[in-house]
Amino acid sequence: MPKLKTNRGAAKRFRRTGKGGYKRSQSYMNHILTKKSSKRKRQLGKTLQVADADTKAVRKLLPYS
User: Fold this and answer.
1) Helix-strand-coil percent breakdown of the chain, rounded to 5?
2) Torsion of CA 55, 57, 63, 64, to 10 degrees
3) HEC profile for 20-39?
4) C-beta of residue 55 within 8 angstroms of C-beta of residue 3
5) How many Cβ atoms sit within 10 Å of the Cβ of residue 50?
6) Among 14, 3, 28, which residue's Cα sits nearest to residue 56?
7) What pTM was estimated for this model as a whole?
8) SS3 of residue 63 by DSSP
9) DSSP conformational letter for 6
10) What pLDDT digit, counting tens, does each position of 6-56 carry?
11) Tell me, what DSSP letter sits at residue 46?
């Protein structure tokens, strides 16, 4: 059985959590920040958990995480 390849784009975007889920960062934080409020930018900086509906797809992209 050959080794499976990790999707390198997904590897840069998702990290495994201790309980087996995946954490992700949020979008809309790279440019055009002047018109966004401080509160919005602060909240966008936090990491979130990948939704249950998407976890199966992420697990397929990251077979060894």
Assistant:
1) 35, 10, 50
2) -30
3) CCEEECCCCCCCCCCCCCHH
4) no
5) 19
6) 14
7) 0.85
8) coil
9) P
10) 999 999 999 999 999 999 999 999 999 999 999 999 999 999 999 999 999
11) S
